[in-house]
Amino acid sequence: MIDKNKHILNHSASIKDGLVRINELDGSAVFISDENEIILGAVTDGDIRRGILNDISLNDSITKVMHSQFRHIKSKNYTIESINEFRKQNINIVPIIDENGRMVKLIDLSTLRSVLPIEVLLMAGGRGERLRPLTDTVPKPMLKIGDKPILEHNIDRLALYGIEKIAISVKYKAEIIESHFGDGSEKGLNISYIYENEPLGTIGAIKNIPSIDTESVLVMNSDLLTNIDFEDFYLFFKDKNADMLVASIPYRVDIPYGVLETEGDSIVSLKEKPTYTYYSNAGIYLIKTNSLDKIPKDKLYNATDLMDQLMKDGKNVINYPIVQYWLDIGKHDDFRKAQEDIKHITF
Questions:
Q1: 119-341 has which fold?
Q2: Cα(first)–Cα(last) distance of the chain, in Å?
Q3: I need a surface site. Which of 142, 171, 222, 259 has the fewest CB within 10 A?
Q4: pLDDT tier, 179 (very low <50, low <70, confident <90, very high otherwise)
Q5: Where are the domains of the chain?
Q6: 133 upstream amide cis, omega within 30 of 0
């Protein structure tokens, strides 16, 4: 995570001050602010060189070489397409500016795959009965796959897509999860915890998040190992104008016999050893925040209940087949498979 304060200089600074700071930042741009922390412009080392060639003194104000029309992103009004425009122009250090003109954060597109405007709820309260005795002392999401817990694989992947605000629903051995991740600041994240005194199902805990400030929210089971492309998932959601997008796993069934299709006693067709593809729920959902009004507070409620209700209401519930890697770490065989797969799958 970039420390934005290192990239900000007060407008009272000299050009020499700016040159020193840019050198400390290995050539990265600096941003000039007024006394109210409003960003006035940006300065690069090229701007300073051009200023010196035009006989501007190193002791002059940094504002003399500042560009007031600098490239930036509005914190509450940007698109993934606008992010990708920066990539096309090889601009990696991008300031995100709020409605008052202050810098909210500075992102480095060389280390991020996207900057998705969503918040996340990770469901991590289950005990994992089928994985006992492994889960007698450790909650299932904290079982290690490779060198880190399943839950951490998911959190790190979300962070790769610029997602920072993550709530984790916890119950069984919650203290182990909270002790490991804390408030998320070490990873540049904002992690909070929703404590389930009573089971609330696979989505009921979302009603106990104090506020969700994005137009859509991602809900995900924490005991999945997947390299799903969250940007593609989000763009598909937007393109389909979905109220709820449900990730699924294609499941193919090969029938080893000829299958007769009948109407009454009559055979109307014969399919020789057909293959049928079904879609299984993958436990990853993207939901319009205003759809969460359907969920009752402090009651057991599953994501499938919300799907049913939205479909009854005529809302747009869309399927997203995952074509990347996905594995539910639910049984010992799955856990052993994950230990091998992590050596070969790119996350």
A1: Spore Coat Polysaccharide Biosynthesis Protein SpsA; Chain A (3.90.550)
A2: 19
A3: 259
A4: very high
A5: 4-108, 119-341
A6: yes
Contact between 100 and 38 (Cβ < 8 Å):
yes
The two tokens of residue 33 are 């602010």
The structure tokens listed for 89 are 């122009």
* Token pair 């600041």: residue: 185
**H helix intervals, 64-215:** 80-88, 150-160, 174-181
- The structure's pTM equals 0.84
Specify the pLDDT at position 174. 86
Taking a C-beta distance cutoff of 8 angstroms, is the pair 65, 50 a contact? yes
Residue 1 has pLDDT above 70, yes or no: no
CATH of 4-108, one of 3.40.50.1970, 3.40.50.720, 3.10.580.10, 1.10.520.10: 3.10.580.10
> What is the dihedral sign for C-alpha 187, 189, 190, 192?
negative
Q: Map tokens 């925040």 to a residue.
A: 289
Which residue from 55, 50, 66 is spatially nearest to 18, judged by alpha carbons?
66
Of residues 204 and 125, which shows the higher confidence score?
A: 204
d(CA 127, CA 321) in angstroms, rounded, equals 28
Task: Give the pLDDT mean for 295-316.
Answer: 93
Which tokens sit at 35? 């006394």
So what's the pLDDT on residue 167?
Answer: 96
Instruction: Please give the average per-residue pLDDT across 219-246, as a whole number.
Output: 95
